[in-house]
Each structure stands twice: as C-alpha cells, then as structure tokens.
Specification:
Layout: H1 6-13, E1 19-25, E2 34-40, H2 58-71, E3 73-79, H3 81-87, H4 89-102, E4 110-114, E5 124-128, H5 136-159, H6 165-168, H7 174-183, H8 194-201
Parallel strand pairs: 1-4, 4-5
Antiparallel strand pairs: 1-2, 2-3
Helix pairs in contact: 2-5, 3-4
Length: 202
C-alpha cells in the first residue's frame, strides 16, 4: 500500500478547502520528546517519494524532508520528556499535535489524524487508522515528525554521549538498557515509563 490523495480529494469534494495531515513520532521511546508534524500539501506540487516514514530509511526520509518544507505548509509540535512525565504520553501526543496545527501559518478546516483517537483541535478532525500509509498529507506529516525528532536525538547524543541516543533514538534497545545500567538515568529520560521508573526505584 502506498499513500494517495484520496482522503484529501473526498474532503475537498465535500466542501473542505484547507486540509492538513497530522502524525507523531516518539510515543514509545524511553527518552526524548514526542514530536508531531502537521502538513498542508500543495495538491499541484506534491513531492515525490512520500510514504509512511516507517517504510523509508533514514536517508530517504532526509531526502524528502526539504522538498516537503519547500512545497508545503508545515507546523511542528514538540513536547519534552518532562512534560510527558507530567501529563502522560497520550495527552503529550495530543498536545504535540495541537502545537503542530497551531504552528501552521494557514488555519486548516479539516485535520486528517493518524490513528483512532484525535486531539481537540481548532478545526474538524478525521481519524484514519494506518493513515501514514494511506494519506499523502499524513505521510508527509509522519516524515516531518520523524526527521525532526531524529535530529533532536542526534543533538541529545552530543549532550549525553554515554547513552548512544543517535543510534537508538531513545527506544528501548539492548544498547540503551546497557547504557542505563552503567550510567543511570539522565534528564532526558521519561521517568514515568516503567523501565526508567524501575531503575529510579532501586
């Protein structure tokens, strides 16, 4: 399956005029922020190579990132690890999506949101399960979110080199677990996530 403009075309036919796709990256990791992207594509200038970010390798995601930024309207929302601990990961994901849509220079009248739950936005929403593989707007948002977050994790790797964040992006890999065992928890770890909470409880 490759994403198409079908959902967007149907929305345009039903009277909507400005449609954005919304997706997030980083719900599952033990460390770092959760990041959301909101993208309003120019239907006459859609960059080639758009796909679910999980189906593209890092080089391909990076290659299509700039064409999206240049041809579309893009908003990014970031919620820190500390905020995740404060409000929980679901609410943090919704907050990142709200921030991403708010950051758009043009206000959409419909947001196509990946998944089965939507945040409360200033426009109507439509959830699409597996939307990053079905809708070009959501696929573009998934790439913006993923590349932005990966770049942030590379920066955190330079700040906290002991944890190898550039390698695993904060996800719960064996290398990450080994680094935690050696060095303990750093400020970028999500302290309410069970593996981190267990370390802190010892």
């Amino acid at each position: 399956m490759i994403p198409t403009f079908t959902y967007e075309s149907a929305a345009l036919s039903s009277g909507h005029s400005i449609i954005c796709g919304v997706d997030e990256a980083g719900r599952g990791p033990w460390a770092g922020p959760v990041v959301a992207g909101a993208v309003i594509l120019d239907r006459h200038n859609i960059p080639p190579g758009l796909n679910d970010s999980k189906k593209l390798n890092e080089a391909k995601r990076e290659a299509v990132f700039d064409p999206i930024m240049q041809s579309a309207l893009v908003g990014v929302g970031i919620v820190s690890a500390a905020e995740i601990d404060e409000i929980n990961i679901l609410q943090a994901t919704f907050l990142a999506m709200q921030r991403a849509v708010t950051a758009l220079k043009t206000k959409p009248d419909l947001a196509l949101v990946d998944g089965n739950k939507s945040p409360i936005l200033t426009c109507k929403t439509k959830t699409i399960i597996g939307g990053d593989a079905k809708s070009l707007s959501i696929a573009a948002a998934s790439i913006i979110a993923k590349v932005t977050r990966d770049r942030m994790m590379h920066a955190l790797d330079r700040q906290y080199p002991d944890y190898l964040f550039a390698k695993h992006k904060g996800y719960g890999t064996a290398a990450h677990a080994a680094a935690l065992a050696r060095h303990g928890v750093c400020p970028e770890h999500r302290k309410t996530f069970k593996p981190i909470a267990l370390i802190l409880a010892r």
